[in-house]
Amino acid sequence: MTISSKSNTARNRLAVNTIERAPEGIFWVRATGFFYQANEWFYRLLGYSEEELRALHVCDVAIDLEKAQWDVFWRQAGKPGGLRHEGGLATKLQESVIVEIRACLLPIDGDQLMCAFVRDLVDPHRETEPLLAELRASEARFRTLYNNTPVMLQACDHETRLYSANKYWLETLGYEWEEVKGRQTREFMTEASRDNVIHRVIPVLLESGSIHDFEYQMVKKNGQVLDVALTAVSERDSDGDIIRTLSMILPISDRKRAERLESQNVFLREELSGAADFAEIIGHSPPLQEVFQAIDMVAGTDATVLLLGETGTGKELAARAIHERSDRSKSVMITVNCAALQPNLVESELFGHEKGAFTGALTTKKGRFELADHSTIFLDEVGELSLEAQSKLLRVLQEQEVERVGGTETVGIDVRIIAATNRPLEVEVSKGNFRADLYYRLNIFPIRMPPLRDRIDDIPLLTNHFVDKFAQHIGKKIPNINRKVIEKLVSYPWPGNVRELANILERAVILCPGRTLQPQHIGVDAGVVQLDDDVPTLAESEYRLILRALEKCDGRLSGPKGAAAILGVNRSTLWSRMHKLGIDISRKIG
Question: Are residues 131 and 157 in the same domain?
Answer without folding.
Answer: no
